[in-house]
Each structure stands twice: as C-alpha cells, then as structure tokens.
C-alpha cells in the first residue's frame, strides 16, 4: 500500500482548505495525501471521508478527499484569522510530524500559516513554520531550499535586513549550509554526486576587491577548502548576475545564495507558480507551497493550487528517491 503524504491544513481562514480540495481533485490516486484538519473548514460541497487509518488514503482518494480529523475550537471565516483556532493549526502540524516520524506517511507537506494568529491565540514561540518543525524534530540547523524543475536555490541567510547580511554570513554558517544542501541533494533528491554553485556576496563577486572584500577575505578560500571533498563538486564564488541563465543552470544541481532576494528573485522569475519550499536538514521530507495564506482572496474561488500541487508531487518524488 502506498503511504500517503500528510498535508497539514495551515490557517483555515486562508486559501489552504480550498487549494487542498483543488489539489485532491487534480491528483487523486496519482499522488495520495491525507488532509489534517477540521472538516468544517473545507469548502461547502467538498466530498471527503474521515479516516481512522492513513493507510486507507490511497483507496479513498479515488472518490473523496481523505481526512484525518483535527478538532478546532471555532468555525473559520475566509479572510479573517481566528486566534482561537491557533491551537488546532499547531496540532495539525504536530500530527503531520508524528505521521512521518512513525512511518505512516511518506512526507509532510504544510499549507501556509499566519504567525500573528498563532502568537495571539497560542503564544507561538517560533520565528516561523520551519523553526517549529526543526524543534519538533530535535535538530538545531535546517536549510530552506526553493525548488522547481528549472532551478534549485538555497539562501544562506533568510529573513534579515540586507544591511545585516555581511555580519550574519559567517564561515560556519556557509559551511553548514553547504553540507546540509549536499546531504539533502543526495538523500532526498537521489543525486549521488551533487554539483553546487555558490554565489558571491557582492556585485561581480567583489571584482577583485573593487566592489567588496568578503570574497577575497574568506569566501573563496572556504570554497576551495570544502571542494577538497571528492563527494561533491563546489564552484564559486560566482557573480550572481551570470549564475541563473540556462547555460549556467545546466552546470549545477543547486545554487547557494548569500541572501533572500538573491535566491528568490531568479526562481520566482523563472517559475513563479511552480516553486516549492523544501526544508533540508530534517529527518523527514517536508515541502510546502511557496506562498502565504492569501487572506485577501480566500473563499473567492481565485486561489491558484499549482504551487501546492507541485509541492505534493515533489514530496512524492523525494520519497521515491529516499
């Protein structure tokens, strides 16, 4: 029996429930998943079946959305997050983690959450989804990858001001990011000998010190040292403005970038709707759509399920490669 993917519901006042139903209608048994949430929050008219065993998801998916029921405190109003539902959102994530750790699910896919609602309603103490998953898994360092069929990128620093990047970007951080990325490419993407390109921090990778000194001070030397590991091919530091055209992308399996926009602008330009957020460094597979709760369009039939569909399909491919 095919193990399903566990899909946590995310904030039920956002677009999560409606894109879950749209993804099920598109995928059904081709990529079976079980939705973890309160059935009251599904769009009216949704055909669903509450399961007692996730193993039944494959058969059920032919005719109904498989659901593992997580009771929530309140109904959901599209576009208006309810803090009283925060505990349910957290319970959905925790249930998904337990399913993958126990082997009942092949991977975890997470729908978008709303951090403020979680803080207001449950005192949520984590910077975001990823850090919460890391805590549940008992790991202290994870890496965010954005992936599509055209490009995989990893930002070494993420949600910080650009002015803070040079101080946050340390040899230890970059070394661990490279190591986790290489391990993830091997274990979850089935790439035996990963090729990783590393962008420079400054324009033109510093241009010999004329546009910045970090490349010459330590980045190039670190890459040279780590490249002595013959299980991975490392190149760089590369000027970011020439790293993402088609010929360049053919020469690597993933690009490590130095800050958020350096990584996300190219992938969102190349494949905006199909980008998938992958967390590397967890002891299980985790993907998510590369968008937020979209409260402004929730419940209006306008939400595009493509990123969630791609996240589910990528989770399935990664599980098959593991």
From TrEMBL:
Binds 1 divalent metal cation per subunit. Can use ions such as Zn(2+), Mg(2+) or Co(2+). A divalent metal cation binds at residues 159, 204, 260. It catalyses: 4-(phosphooxy)-L-threonine + NAD(+) = 3-amino-2-oxopropyl phosphate + CO2 + NADH. It comes from the Bacteria. Gene3D superfamilies: Isopropylmalate Dehydrogenase (3.40.718.10). Coiled coil: none annotated. InterPro entries: PdxA (IPR037510), PdxA_fam (IPR005255). GO terms for molecular function: 4-hydroxythreonine-4-phosphate dehydrogenase activity; cobalt ion binding; magnesium ion binding; NAD binding; zinc ion binding. Pathway: Cofactor biosynthesis; pyridoxine 5'-phosphate biosynthesis; pyridoxine 5'-phosphate from D-erythrose 4-phosphate: step 4/5. It is found in: Cytoplasm. Its EC number is 1.1.1.262. One of its GO terms (biological process) is pyridoxine biosynthetic process. Keywords: Cobalt, Cytoplasm, Magnesium, Metal-binding, NAD, NADP, Oxidoreductase, Pyridoxine biosynthesis, Zinc. It holds the Pfam family PdxA. Substrate binds at residues 129-130, 268, 277, 286. Its cofactor is Zn(2+); Mg(2+); Co(2+). GO terms for cellular component: cytoplasm. PANTHER family: 4-HYDROXYTHREONINE-4-PHOSPHATE DEHYDROGENASE (PTHR30004), D-THREONATE 4-PHOSPHATE DEHYDROGENASE (PTHR30004:SF6). The active site is located at the dimer interface. Catalyzes the NAD(P)-dependent oxidation of 4-(phosphooxy)-L-threonine (HTP) into 2-amino-3-oxo-4-(phosphooxy)butyric acid which spontaneously decarboxylates to form 3-amino-2-oxopropyl phosphate (AHAP). Homodimer. Belongs to the PdxA family. HAMAP family: PdxA (MF_00536). This is 4-hydroxythreonine-4-phosphate dehydrogenase. It comes from Falsiruegeria mediterranea M17. The gene is pdxA.
């Amino acid at each position: 029996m095919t193990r399903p993917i566990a899909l946590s519901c995310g904030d039920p006042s956002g677009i999560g429930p409606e894109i879950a139903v749209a993804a099920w209608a598109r995928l059904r048994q081709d990529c079976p998943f079980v939705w973890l949430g309160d059935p009251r929050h599904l769009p009216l008219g949704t055909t669903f079946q509450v399961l007692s065993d996730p193993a039944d998801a494959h058969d059920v998916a032919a005719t109904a959305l498989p659901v593992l029921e997580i009771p929530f405190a309140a109904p959901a109003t599209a576009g208006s997050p309810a803090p009283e539902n925060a505990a349910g959102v957290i319970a959905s994530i925790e249930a998904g983690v337990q399913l993958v750790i126990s082997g009942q699910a092949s991977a975890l896919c997470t729908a978008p959450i709303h951090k403020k609602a979680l803080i207001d309603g449950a005192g949520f103490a984590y910077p975001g989804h990823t850090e919460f998953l890391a805590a549940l898994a008992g790991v202290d360092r994870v890496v965010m990858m954005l992936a599509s069929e055209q490009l995989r990128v990893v930002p070494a620093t993420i949600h910080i001001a650009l002015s803070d990047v040079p101080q946050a970007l340390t040899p230890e951080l970059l070394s661990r990011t490279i190591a986790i990325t290489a391990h993830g490419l091997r274990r979850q993407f089935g790439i035996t000998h990963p090729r990783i390109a590393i962008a420079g921090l400054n324009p033109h990778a510093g241009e010999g010190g004329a546009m910045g000194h970090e490349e010459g001070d330590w980045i190039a030397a670190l890459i040279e040292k780590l490249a002595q590991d013959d299980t991975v091919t490392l190149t760089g530091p590369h000027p970011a403005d020439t790293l993402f055209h088609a010929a360049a992308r053919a020469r690597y399996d993933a690009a490590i970038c130095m800050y958020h926009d350096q990584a996300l602008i190219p992938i969102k330009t190349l494949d905006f709707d199909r980008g998938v957020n992958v967390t590397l460094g967890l002891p299980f597979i985790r993907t998510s759509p590369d968008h937020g709760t979209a409260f402004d369009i929730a419940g209006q039939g306008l939400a595009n399920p493509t990123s969630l569909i791609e996240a589910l399909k990528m989770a399935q491919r990664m599980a098959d490669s593991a």
